[in-house]
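Hello support,

Our group uses your service weekly, and this is the first time we've seen a run hang past the timeout. The protein is GNAT family N-acetyltransferase. I'm not sure whether the cause is the sequence or the server load. Input pasted verbatim:
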Amino acid sequence: MSETVLETGRLMLRSIGPNDAEEQFRVLNTPMVMARLGGPKTLEQIREKHAKAMAMYAAEGFSFLFLIEKDSGEMVGHAGIKRVDNPLASNPGDHEIGWLIREDRWRMGYAAEAVRAIIGWAFGPVGAPHVVALTSELNVPSWKLMEKLGMERRRDLDFEDPAYPPEDRTTILYSLTREQWETAA
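Update from on-call engineer: The timeout came from a worker crash unrelated to the input. Re-ran successfully.
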C-alpha cells in the first residue's frame, strides 16, 4: 500500500505501490526521459526496480517516491533516496539521491522542488550524514541542478560504467553534507 511521505507546494511524494509499474512504464519510460539513463526499460525491469524499492522502504524507511501533481493528480516523476549500489562505485552504501521528471513537465521547477524535499528528508528523518548524486557528464540539466542545490563535484568518486552507451559511461558524482545544506538553507 502506498502512502504520502512528503508534500511540497505543488507535489505529493508517495511511496511506490505494487501496482505502479504499468503507469511508470507508460508515463516516465520514454526515449527522451530515459536518454541519459541507459534508455527505456522493459516492464519487467521496472517491476524488479519497484520490488527492490518497496523492500528498501520497508527495511530502511526510505526509497524512491512518485511525484504526484496536486492540481491534476497525475504522476509527473519520481525522486528519492537509495544506497549507492553500483559495484564500480568507490562509495557503496552512501545515501544517493536521484530524480526523473516526465517530458511534458520539464523546465517547470518540479525537479528542484522535489529534490529539496528529498534532501530535507535525507538530513531529517533518514539521518544521512551526507548525500551524493550520480549522473553522466552529458546530462547537463541534472548536474546543473546539483550545483544549484549547493552540491559539490567529487571527481575523486567518478567512474566508468560499461553498462551504459559510450557517451554516458563516465559517471560523475556530486555530494552535499548536512552542514553545507543547513548553511545554504
